[in-house]
Structures are given as structure tokens and as C-alpha cells.
Design brief:
The chain has 482 residues and is mainly alpha-helical. 64% of the residues lie in helices and 1% in strands. A hairpin with a 2-residue loop joins strand 1 and strand 2. Helix 18 crosses helix 19 and helix 19 runs antiparallel to helix 21.
């Protein structure tokens, strides 16, 4: 293991992250909310820590291998979660413990959206902006941004890129050079964010709310500047703007790239994952609207917009709400929670197992049933018209097995800590799928949980953000053997 190159990369990335604390400094100065020194001190601490790591090994020139790439990704997300917690911990409002500060930071960076803060409407503007900005940075993955910069600093980026985006099928290398790929994805991401902010502003949000909510919408994060989330605005137009951009953010960014580059919608029409994603959310939305109206919880107009919004928000793992969906009677809250297991498309900012994996699990299951009927038949699993190798299908089954294992262990730990079955199950589901709001005691917030439970859920968020294997591989003896 090349410790020096790992140390160098971590130092560089920490220094890079320190500059993301400067925009909240400007927000604090503009609104004069008293947190200028808090964010200034946070900037200096993170910058100096990065320098401390980097200076002793700045002259090291070695290629980062795949194994070191996995370790750097995991270490950086852990270190970043701790560094991002500093402003939350040092700020006098909200007054958070170290555990709560780390939980909020990890939740933001993993775009989970689970919060321990109550009373968002009274918080300083700079803290609100910082929470939203953390989600925006985590949405695409700060590692991907670093891939565009590290080659200029003498560190290769392909290994980091592979470790950060272990998608099951799609080729994430959209352009010949990996740095160009990272830049292309960020331009798409930035373009969607700007368009979303302008749409929110035109729909009636203030400039501050429009910008901050565009961060969490495109990141599929779900943090809001208000306790009532999107429901605070009482505007169906704002809700529909959110629905459109949540849908777009849940799509593989490779499709967006191809559509923009070729000025055509054909990449969407011909992509099996996109079509499955769209029709799955449409089905969940229709069931939600029909259930809300049929059980006379709302009139048709309210049932329509509440049902569509919650179906898209929870199905894409965003986590915005316009109503207390966790208090709805019957099976609907559980159905919506189960929808988050599917999540967004591979290569999107969405969480969950990803649509393509669920689609392949379904196709493999159908193939096994056909083999029972026709034992000698040669049946291939296809996505579109392309037959997939058995290696890809095996990898998806391996992911599913690891997912179930992690889910089961975390669920048992939470129940061991004293949580009831509904709260424990929904908390693990919401954090592993990077959704945020759950059911039971974690429907509105996570503030009342014990410190032990919060640390378990923070680890669960990291498992979900890094798609299980990237983190789980570090727990295998083979990874550490020479």
C-alpha cells in the first residue's frame, strides 16, 4: 500500500474542500448573521490540515493504483464528513453535539437528507446555505470534481473515478479523456442547477430559497431551508418545478450528455433503464393519487399534486415533502418507502439500488423461471437488444446479496439499541437508500435518536453513497494482503 500517495491525495482534496467554506463566509457577511468567524475558522482549520498532510509528501510522483483508489475514496468521505461537521459544531445556532454535527454533515454530503436539526426557519442564513451547498457538492461526488483537477497536479484520476462510480452496466467514460468526462458531467450538473434555480425563482421563491433549493433538488438531497420542506411554500407551481428537476436529476447523466451533445431526445427513447424508471414512477404516482382520493384524504386536486410529488420525491430518493406522508394511513407510506429501494438510474445523483440493477434482477428471475420450463434452452439476459454476459448478472446478484447483508446487520443493530421495528426498518431503508425521511420516530427528524444509533446510520449512509462494495471491500482480508 502506497501510504505517501494516499496522504498526498487526501491533503490535496482537503485543501480543495476548504475553499467550499468561503461562499458561506460571504453569505454570513451579506446577512450579518454573526457566523463570519465560525466559517472563517473552519476554512483555516481544513486548509491547514490539508497542508499538514500534503507538505511532507508533495514531491511524490507515483501512479495511484486501483486498490489505493478505493481506500482514498472511503477515507476522503470519512474525513470530509468530519471536516464538514466543523461549522455545525462551532456555530452557536444550532447548538449541536459532535455526534449531531457529524451526522448532519454526512447526511448532507451523501445527499441523504436525514436531519437532526429542528427549527430550520430560525437558523442563520449562512448555516442554511452551507447545508444546501454540502448536498450540492455531494450530489455528483466531490471525487469526480477532483478527477478533473488531480491530473494537473501529477496524480492520475482514472482509479478514483472507477472507485467512485461502480455502475453495473453503463460505460461512464463519455469522452476519450477522463478529465474531459468529469468536466462534461459537471457542466451538465451546473446547467441543471442554474435552470432549476431560475425556474424556482420564476415560480415565486425568493432568490435565496431558489438557489438553495436548486442545490438540494439537483443533488437529490432533500434538505430544505424550512421545517415544512416544499410544503412551506403552499404552491403547486413550485411543486411541479421540483417534480420536473427531481425526475431529470434521477436520470443517468450520461444520457443528458449525449442528448445535449447531439441535440436529440433519442438517447432517452432508446434507453431501457430510463423507460423503466419513468414508467415505474408513473405507476407509483397513479397508485398514490388513487389511494389518497379513494380514501377521501384529499379532494382530487390536492390528491393529484400531493400524490405525484411524494411519489417522485421518495421514488427518486430526494426526500422533499409537501405533507406528512408518514402519517398517511394504510399501506401507502410503506409503498413509497419501498419505491426508494429502486431509486434513480445508474450514473445519476439518486440513491437506492438503481433501476438498472432492479431491472436485471427481474430479467434474471424471469430467465430462471423459463429454464424450469425449458431446461435445455439457451436464454440470455438482454437490456434493449444487447445480451449481457453472465459476469454482469453475477455482479448484480453479488451487489444484491451484499445490500441485504448490510441492511440486515444495520437493522439488527438499531433494534438492539431499542428502536421499534417500524422505526428501525425505515431508518435503515432511508439512510441506505440515501432518502432521508422515514416512518415512525424518524418521520419528521432524527434528533431524538441515541448517539449510537446516529453513528450506525451515518455509516449506513456511507454504504449507500458508495454503493456498498466500495466500502465493504475494505473489510475483506484479501484487500489488505499483498
Amino acid at each position: 500500500m502506497q501510504v505517501s500517495i494516499i496522504q498526498k491525495v487526501l491533503g490535496l482534496l482537503l485543501m480543495l474542500f476548504s475553499f467550499t467554506l468561503l461562499p458561506p463566509v460571504l453569505v454570513s457577511w451579506w446577512y450579518d448573521d454573526g457566523l463570519l468567524q465560525t466559517f472563517g475558522n473552519g476554512f483555516l482549520v481544513v486548509l491547514l490540515t490539508g497542508l499538514f498532510f500534503w507538505l511532507p509528501v508533495y514531491s511524490v510522483r507515483r501512479e495511484l493504483r486501483l486498490r489505493e483508489g478505493f481506500l482514498v475514496v472511503v477515507l476522503f468521505w470519512v474525513v470530509l464528513g468530519l471536516a464538514g461537521a466543523l461549522p455545525f459544531y462551532f456555530a452557536e445556532q444550532p447548538l449541536l453535539s459532535f455526534t449531531d454535527a457529524v451526522f448532519e454533515s454526512v447526511s448532507a454530503l451523501t445527499t441523504t437528507g436525514a436531519t437532526v436539526i429542528v427549527g430550520l426557519d430560525t437558523l442563520p442564513k449562512s448555516i442554511l446555505f452551507y447545508r444546501q451547498q454540502l448536498q450540492w457538492l455531494g450530489g455528483m461526488g466531490i471525487i469526480v470534481l477532483a478527477v478533473a483537477i488531480l491530473p494537473m497536479l501529477g496524480v492520475g484520476g482514472m482509479q478514483l473515478y472507477r472507485a467512485e462510480t461502480p455502475g453495473p452496466v453503463k460505460d461512464t467514460k463519455l469522452t476519450p479523456r477522463i478529465t474531459e468526462t468529469a468536466k462534461a458531467l459537471w457542466f451538465i450538473y451546473l446547467g441543471l442547477t442554474i435552470a432549476c434555480a431560475l425556474a424556482y425563482f420564476a415560480a415565486g421563491m425568493s432568490a435565496f430559497d431558489a438557489i438553495t433549493h436548486s442545490f438540494s433538488t439537483v443533488a437529490i438531497g432533500g434538505f430544505s431551508t424550512h421545517d415544512d420542506s416544499i410544503g412551506y411554500f403552499q404552491s403547486q407551481l413550485i411543486e411541479m418545478v421540483a417534480v420536473v428537476f427531481m425526475l431529470l436529476a434521477g436520470v443517468n447523466f450520461g444520457l443528458h450528455f449525449m442528448a445535449v451533445r447531439n441535440l436529440t431526445l433519442s438517447p432517452y427513447r432508446h434507453d431501457s433503464e430510463f423507460k423503466t424508471y419513468f414508467f415505474f414512477l408513473l405507476l407509483i404516482a397513479l397508485i398514490s393519487v388513487a389511494y389518497l382520493y379513494g380514501h377521501e384524504l384529499y379532494d382530487f386536486s390536492d390528491a393529484l399534486h400531493h400524490g405525484i410529488f411524494q411519489a417522485v420525491s421518495i421514488g427518486t430518493t430526494t426526500g422533499f415533502t409537501t405533507a406528512a406522508y408518514f402519517d398517511w394511513p394504510g399501506f401507502l407510506p410503506v409503498l413509497l418507502l419501498f419505491a426508494s429501494f429502486v431509486g434513480g438510474c445508474a450514473g445519476s445523483t439518486g440513491g437506492g439500488m438503481k433501476v438498472i440493477r432492479v431491472l436485471l434482477l427481474y430479467k434474471q428471475g424471469m430467465r430462471e423461471m423459463m429454464r424450469l420450463i425449458h431446461p435445455n434452452a439457451q436464454i440470455s439476459v438482454k437490456v434493449g437488444k444487447k445480451a449481457l454476459s453472465d459476469r454482469v448478472v453475477e455482479a448484480v446478484w453479488g451487489f444484491f446479496a451484499a445490500y441485504v447483508l448490510v441492511f440486515s446487520v444495520m437493522l439488527l443493530l438499531l433494534m438492539l439499541a431499542g428502536l421499534d421495528q417500524v422505526t428501525a426498518f425505515s431508518a435503515v431503508a432511508a439512510c441506505l437508500n440515501n432518502l432521508g425521511p422515514g416512518l415512525g420516530e424518524v418521520g419528521a427528524h432524527y434528533a431524538d435518536l441515541s448517539d449510537f444509533v446516529k453513528w450506525v446510520l451515518a455509516l449506513t449512509m456511507l454504504f449507500g453513497r458508495l454503493e456498498i462494495f466500495t466500502l465493504l471491500v475494505l473489510f475483506t482480508p484479501a484487500f489488505w494482503n499483498r
